[in-house]
Amino acid sequence: MKILSQATLNLFLIIIGPLGIAQQTDPLPTPSEISSITGGADPFFEIREEDNVYGVLDVAIDGTVLMFSLQGEPHPDKRRGSRIYLKRSEDGGATWSEHQLIGKPVKLDVEKLGIGPYDGKGWGNDKHHRIASLGTSVVDETSGEIMIFLTALHPALSMYKSRDHGRTWALEEITFKKDSRGFLPIPNGACDPGITLRKGPHKGRLLVASRVMPNYNKHEEGKGYTNAVYSDDHGKTWHQSAPFPLDGTGESGLVELRDGTIYLNSRTHTRKGNRWVAFSDDSGESWRDLHEDDELFDGPPDVYGCKAGLLRLDRDDADILLFSSPSSNLQGRKNIRVWVSFDGGKSWPLNRLIKRGPGNYTWMTQGRKGTPSEGFIYLLSGKDWMARFNMAWLLDPGEPEIVLSQRQIYRFADKDLFHSAENAESFTSGEQIMKGSPEGYRLIKGKEEGRILTQRLVLPSGKMKLSYHAPEGGKIQLAIMDESEAHLRDTKAPIGSYQLDKAIDDWQGGPIDEWVGKTVQFQFKLQGEAEVFGFAFDGVSAPANHTARIGPSNDRFVLPPRHEYVMAQNPPFVKSVENAAPFSVIENRLQGMNTGYQLQDPNRNGHVLTSKLSLPWKEMKASYDTGSGSITISLFDESGTLLNSSKPLTGGLRTRQLVRWSKGFTLNDHVSKPVTLRFDLTGGGKIYGLHFDRVFWE
Q1: 10 Å Cβ neighbour count for 447?
Q2: Best exposed site among 69, 141, 367, 409 by fewest CB in 10 Å?
Q3: pLDDT tens-digit map of 588-640
Q4: Would you state the pLDDT for residue 86?
Q5: What's the rounded Cα separation, in Å, for the pair 537 and 545?
Q6: Is 218 within the bounds of a domain?
């Protein structure tokens, strides 16, 4: 084993910035602390494909990794015939057993559960939900028992238990207590595995994330809520916590911080937005300090949340949390990432892509000390794949990702355009018409199809032109893909010998304009004698010829939509300044705004540039003081293209004043999309914050 190289640590420092875990205001670790976190291990990462695994991950007390799954109907809302299976790994995940049957679903005894008669309107009366199948799991670290809950829209009064690290299982009766509102819990498979408390007066308590469906009606998720169930008698009797102080929540995870505080992180089911967080000081019986997390967006922007994974690293010196979810900047559930917090969930300064492509619900667990699983993180996504990696890999920035900036012309003669190829090689054409860009790609084996993939780039325009050679004995097909490598559009095969910058206007499914300004990738399929040399665009505004290299803590970070952005907040609203500096605010009318920005040298103009943010609403308000100067706000899209500038802000000191835009421009088309703002200051102008009366999901 070796410690991460100093060059790697230096790169980490360059990309991330100043570090230090000891100070609360500086959430990233120092190089020596990084070495401590990684345990001196080499970076390790692998992905294994799985078949029909929709379930829960956990690790037995002896380090055996457990992958539970449903067979039959894999979706948790279709319970009939869904038997519960398990795959085990006794060598830390290197090899796995075949599917082992744990048991069959359990028919629910509604009368014994104390649930009154149904009115026939809700899903509670649906025959699918009279069968309880795979719920979440918990390992009792005191006894070594592994327990699997059985749930539908209410729990079964029995659970599967194993006392030999998952080799054999038995169905045993348990008791559930109703909560303060009179309902039973659902510790189902979409809630994270439970924990054994290690601190405080309830040391040894089993605590498991759960949810409640009032009236057991799936159609009323807006009335549902997150909670937790706990047992002080090794899983025989289960009590419920107080309801999470926000309705409309449900799927969640929880961890115990090193001071014994319980941190709970929950999805919402009826609105778009960020994850909701609360804490418990009484071992999970009640909740305090409910708030919406500043950084963790609740799944993709086009869906109402997504089940995520949460865990705390098993260490005594720091609260290092991991959070897994689809990327928040892509439509649909794609590109699973893991975020890292070094301060117990206060901030999430680092994230890393786990796998491109479709990704859905995620579960995470970690290995046990002193066993073959020690040091490994295990992540299961949906029912298709599982990743195994360590902290050395997660914290190693590796090669920065390349995203080409907007250009008018992209040629394979440019060394940064090419990404990879299958059965294709570069060559130099001798054709006179191609002398301006003679380098291209053609097949190695002419009787087999070949592919060329470009680097990712910010699409500069929807008006694309292609330089190629497709004679009668050759064929080219062009596809545009998003960041997850999902196909967006394909072209009909262009034809013609040695075509230079020929317009591509026959995309199957329609134009590609909706992806302008977004990160895309192009793939060329070649057949026969076809050759491809590059492409170009008409109508490119403000092209840039440099290459953007993006590290793990990257320029794609987007602040989540919120009602207010102030100059001093975490995560930072201000990204950079020119001839501007912060100052303390003492004006009573600026309640909640403690910091402003003004010019350092009032005789020179300056500006304040914000981080990217997901534009919350179509009306923007600002708090400012024009003083003896002026203030103008400029709006840029995700690629940095200027969209519009506001009319000059006026009126001296103003709070929450509506911003008006030039030439009839409105924000309507940019709501929910990533934008950047620049405050241009002259003279004595001062800027304090931005405000939005509504957020787009409300």
Answers
A1: 8
A2: 141
A3: 788 878 899 999 999 999 999 998 888 889 999 999 999 999 999 999 987 78
A4: 93
A5: 14
A6: yes
